[in-house]
Design a protein that fits this description.
The protein is an alpha/beta fold. The protein is built from ten helices and seven strands. The protein has a single domain, classed as Rossmann fold (3-Layer(aba) Sandwich). Helix 5 links the parallel strand 2 and strand 3. The structure holds S-adenosylmethionine (SAM). One of its GO terms (biological process) is methylation.
């Protein structure tokens, strides 16, 4: 399958999918998603240009595992749930979580990615796609609003601007009656860091070149953007038992991160709840 027509930001989906595919090929995978491996093998692409180092592979696999666990718990508590995977890319999260048929799952992404998704991933009852930009109003109009809803974003926010993220969060709590929002987060990413990353990756296909968001240190920052959100969890990947499978340098960083919050927050999951009063 050719992906030459994808825009640079749409192409960022190849990095996370490839990272999970390589994880699946390990003798002891962290996530273990064989469908990701099937999908990347069907795409004609030079994945070596993406910069998927062993550390990137481990961190992407682990945060997917952490988000899967949160979505699984939500649908177990709410069998009538709606799950909205924002910037779903080619992710096979719905197959990994494998919710009951009473759950409706919406994968929202840009049109080029969703065309590829439909061509590469098997159809599934209760699975729907919404081809739209989450930075524009209207993406949620066709999604049921009155059921418990979990919105999840794995790897999306880095590619949005801060105003787009603020509007997206307000749109979620404005449209859906109640539920949760969970996403991966890197803490504050300084301009120097972003520019250094972009210079280092110049000429490659690294998603660093599409990075738009400076992030935030205080996990409660989204509560200040949107008073309907209540922080219920900040969980760093650096505390997970799977860090023992990390390559040596990253394993050392994860041990340090347990004592240094500034490092721990570089690989965290944030989860918020909301309910209309
Ligand atoms: C790094 S990929 C992550 C994809 C997927 N969540 C995963 O874990 O593999 C980022 C995704 O966000 C999507 N994206 C970026 N900007 C978007 C926007 N404004 N609206 C919808 N999707 C967007 C990209 O097309 C891409 O699929």
């Amino acid at each position: 399958m050719d992906v030459g027509d994808l825009s640079p930001v749409e192409r960022t989906t190849l990095l996370t999918e490839y990272a999970r595919a390589v994880d699946a090929r390990q003798p002891r995978p962290i996530l273990g998603d064989p469908l990701a491996d099937e999908v990347v093998r069907k795409i004609d692409y030079d994945y070596s240009t993406l910069g998927v180092t062993p550390s990137v592979r481990c961190l992407v696999a682990l945060r997917a595992r952490m988000l899967d666990d949160r979505v699984r718990a939500f649908v177990a508590a709410h069998p009538d749930a709606v799950v909205v995977d924002l910037g779903s890319g080619l992710s096979s999260m719905v197959y990994r979580v494998d919710p009951p048929g009473s759950v409706d799952w919406y994968s929202v992404d840009l049109p080029g990615v969703l065309a590829l998704r439909s061509a590469l991933l098997p159809p599934r009852t209760g699975s729907h796609t919404v081809a739209a930009s989450v930075a524009e109003p209207g993406w949620c109009d066709a999604i049921p609003a009155h059921r418990p809803t979990m919105a999840v974003a794995d790897g999306l926010f880095a590619f949005l601007t801060e105003p787009a993220i603020v509007s997206l969060l307000r749109r979620i709590t404005g449209h859906f009656d109640s539920g949760a929002v969970a996403f991966n987060d890197y803490g504050r990413v300084s301009k120097l860091n972003r520019i250094t990353g972009q210079l280092a990756m110049r000429g490659s296909n690294s998603p660093h070149l599409q990075w738009n968001f400076a992030g935030f240190k205080d996990p409660r920052q989204p509560e200040r953007w949107n008073s309907d959100l209540r922080l219920v969890e900040e969980a760093s990947a650096m505390f997970e038992p799977e860090t023992e499978q990390f390559p040596r340098g990253l394993r050392a960083a994860s041990r340090l991160a347990r004592r240094v919050p500034a490092i721990a927050r570089k690989a965290r999951i944030l989860r918020f709840e909301f309910a209309r009063s």
